[in-house]
Design brief:
This protein is an alpha+beta fold. Helix content is about 45%, strand content about 10%. It has 18 helices and twelve strands. Its EC number is 2.7.11.1.
Length: about 500
């Protein structure tokens, strides 16, 4: 394949004004009478078209699924990228989960108003045909479940577990204050970590997620007792579920509430604690958190505490509030910033706009190869050269007409026939591979295009697009920067 010069990749309603959380305040009983200031901006809630979300998720590609249960999840969540380059999570409900369109739209719009810095905020929805989709902010650092139960590098430290408990209580308290007192199926999968490593509560749990609004899907071992009796949840049920999350944080594993309460009553609380946390906490602090969990798990709903009490109990247990979450979790924040001097092709690749990329490649044609040994190395006018010309012609026609499988076939023949390879043919075949969901082959061809013309921005931009499709965003941004640098170098040489 030749020597690659590339860095080796490790293979609203529409009328509503934007909602800013600046200045919005929520009481924080845990810190005395202070307030929690909302210092981040959230896009306005809007209705998206199905076409927009298809493009954002690459036609709901399996490679974009981020649900921890994958395709087996009843309602699959996809990672997506909107046309403005914003990353989002798109939840696709199973067919006919919400047969009443008006009910779905009203419920989504209501949840969209519940904005808070401790929430994964809902920013849009879509209801077309049988499709029911929600669009939320994208959280890049996985779920609490993964960090607690499936950790690979290091267990979640004690201080971070306390922070999760406090942030979740803040989020639930805020929802309750806005009269969103029911949260469905609160568990470790519903807590996600943002780019700073801060824990946030998914807004998806505020949706009723059923035909009649009564569904409560969960493991029966962890279901609030009143749901087993009546088939309904009440605000106090959320407190019970919060208690199960505290058990998860304390133990680092799934412990049925009844078993946990037996251990607490028998004063065998040490058996509850995750052994990996040894030496990280004061015994009094652990005892207080265990006691709080037991209060939340009381059989009678009236015996459980309220959110004001929860916040006041967890707040004093935070001993390292000044330490950033990403430090506690051992995360390195991605400081890559997209280069500002991107060509139209670079910008189209950055936002993964395949239509725009195709148009630009068509308009550019083969002119970037002018000045090479010859256009396509047609050295002698023989029957073989005529065959090459015909194959190129048919490939270009298929590419123009968006018959990308045919284009791949013709360009593949052309690559074999040509004695000197063409960077443009590799670029066009790379794009055709991208459109047909073959990102790894696309990356290979884009790298081959770079071999043909080592400082060719198009090759870098197409590599960035392929890397984005493969979920390798950091490498993709590096490629965009490299492409922009070569673009700037070319521009300066032309001026001179």
């Amino acid at each position: 394949m030749g020597c690659f010069f590339s860095k080796n990749a490790t293979l609203r309603s529409r009328e509503d004004p934007p909602i800013s959380l600046h200045g919005s305040k929520t009481p924080d009983p845990g810190n005395g009478d202070s307030v929690v200031e909302q210092d981040n901006k959230v896009p306005a809630f809007k209705e998206y078209s199905l076409d927009e979300l298809r493009r954002a998720t690459n036609e709901f590609s399996r490679s974009n699924i981020v649900s921890e249960s994958g395709e087996k999840a009843p309602n699959v969540v996809y990672k997506g990228k909107l046309e403005n380059n914003q990353l989002v999570a798109v939840k696709r409900f199973s067919k006919l989960s919400w047969p009443d369109v008006q009910q779905f739209m009203a419920e989504a719009a209501g949840v969209g108003k519940v904005r808070h810095k401790r929430m994964v905020n809902l920013i849009g929805c879509c209801a077309e045909g049988d499709e029911r989709l929600l669009v939320a902010e994208y959280m890049p650092n996985d779920t609490l479940s993964k960090h607690l139960f499936h950790w690979e590098k290091q267990p979640l430290p004690w201080e971070m577990r306390v922070r999760v408990g406090y942030h979740v209580a803040e989020a639930l308290s805020h929802c309750s204050m806005l009269n969103r007192k029911l949260y469905h199926d609160l568990n470790a999968y519903r807590v996600l970590f943002d780019e700073d490593g801060d824990p946030r509560l998914s807004s998806f749990g505020l949706m009723k997620n059923s035909r009649d609004g009564k569904s409560y899907s969960t493991n029966l071992a962890y279901t609030p007792p009143e749901f087993l009796r009546t088939g309904r949840i009440i605000p106090e049920s959320v407190i019970f579920s919060y208690g199960t999350v505290l058990l998860d944080l304390l133990s680092g594993k799934h412990i049925p509430p009844s078993h946990a309460l037996d251990l607490i009553r028998g004063k065998n609380v040490l058996l509850l604690l995750d052994s990996s946390l040894e030496g990280q906490y004061a015994n009094d602090d652990a005892t207080k958190l265990i006691d709080l969990a037991s209060k939340c798990l009381q059989f009678e709903a009236r015996d459980r505490p309220d959110f004001k009490f929860l916040l006041s109990e967890v707040a004093p247990l935070q001993k390292q509030k000044e330490v950033a979450s990403k430090v506690l979790m051992g995360l390195t924040k991605n400081t890559n910033v997209l280069p500002t001097m991107l060509s139209p092709l670079g910008k189209a690749c950055a936002r993964m706009d395949l239509t725009a990329v195709h148009d630009i490649l068509l308009k550019t044609g083969y002119k970037d190869e002018e000045g090479a040994e010859n256009e396509l190395s047609f050295q002698e006018w023989t029957q073989q050269v005529q065959d090459i010309l015909n194959t190129k012609k048919f490939g270009d026609i298929a590419f123009r007409d968006k018959e990308f499988k045919d284009a791949i076939e013709y360009y593949s023949k052309l690559v074999v026939m040509m004695s000197v390879p063409s960077a443009t043919v590799f670029a066009r075949r790379a794009f055709s591979y991208l459109v047909t969901d073959q990102a790894e082959l696309a990356l290979r061809d884009a790298m081959q295009g770079q071999v043909c013309i080592p400082d060719w921005p198009t090759a870098f931009y197409l590599q960035a697009l392929a890397l984005s499709k493969l979920g390798m965003d950091t490498d993709a941004q590096d490629m965009l920067k490299d492409g922009a640098a070569f673009e700037a170098k070319r521009s300066n040489s032309w001026r001179n």
